[in-house]
Design a protein that fits this description.
There is one protein chain. This protein is about 15% helix and about 25% strand. It is α+β, with helices and mostly antiparallel strands and about 350 residues long. It has a 6-stranded antiparallel beta barrel with strand order 3-4-13-12-9-14. It contains 7 helices and 15 strands. It has a domain of about 200 residues: Elongation Factor Tu (Ef-tu), domain 3 (Beta Barrel), CATH 2.40.30. Strand 1 and strand 2 form a beta hairpin.
Length: about 350
Amino acid sequence: MNWCRSVQSLVKSAFSGKIRQESSNYAQLRYMSRVKSRHTAPRHFWMKKERARYPEELSSENEAFLREVVSDRYESPLRHHPPAAPLAYTPGVRRCGLVARKIAVQPMWLSNGKYVNTTLLHVADNHVVGYVPPEMLNQNEVVRRRWKEQYRPLAGLVVGADQEDPTKFTKEYANMFLEAGIMPTKKLTRFTISPEAALAPGTRLRATHFQVGDYVDVYAKTRERGFQGVMKRWGFAGQPATHGATKTHRRPGGIGSGAQKSRVWPGQKMPGHMGGQYRNLRGLKILRINTKHDIIYVLGHAVPGDHNDYVLIHDTVLPLRRRKEPGTVITDEEAAQLPEDIFHPDVHQMAAPSIVF
């Protein structure tokens, strides 16, 4: 009976993720890391996006006729029914985000003379494609596990970026955009929002979705580094370079866990594939917005991803950096009246004089 009780207590401690030390046994329990977190192929339940290209041998008149048919078929419903006015802002509301491209890193100077680096994020022709109600979104196992419905119901808003010719995509993928009245897009993503922050399909999202001074979180995939050793991947110091070291300079060394454990624990830092992981960079301050080209300048140069890669921008989740004012969707007429560049008060504008006598 005593032996059974000790086994049961060990199993309970294993599921709780704790470390338990006894007089003769030392059980080290870590979170299992055997689940594959990096996927290099689309999910099996996703519909096929691109189709095979072959010469269709169309004349110029036929191509012009097809372009007219496409323009008539993908007509935005907002042309006949303008979007409804946004609801009143309440604290804790979760807004939609933007899909952007990381295009460059540019230096800036603040009013006090401090030099800072900023990352340029180009909002790539964002449009709302569809709305997913909370009862349908709750059927997703991942969403149901992370966001419990009894805590606060959440909905989904599908946003597309970079419209392309419908003939480049399959029929199933192109039909997803008929309700929104836009061309099929290269990038399609879903943001988790509050039901009161829903937007009509076909609504265009611009860089002015955020304001100068807001703090945002950027979600993107890190650069691919390929297969790397422990010194490059985990920052190991390596072994001695001289005095008898033979072919062990960059090796990890012993990975045994002792005589009693007698195995390699899951989660051991070893050589392997580096990069290609989705990461969140939180609390980036917006210093400048270019309304003409829809470019957002965020503070810092550590945004994940390579140049021209897609990134997702949304309001920060940091409690002391959340926005206090409501955000509205700006129409084309309102966007034409805005200045081309909107600067933060702490940023020194290069057109302004730096020394005043």
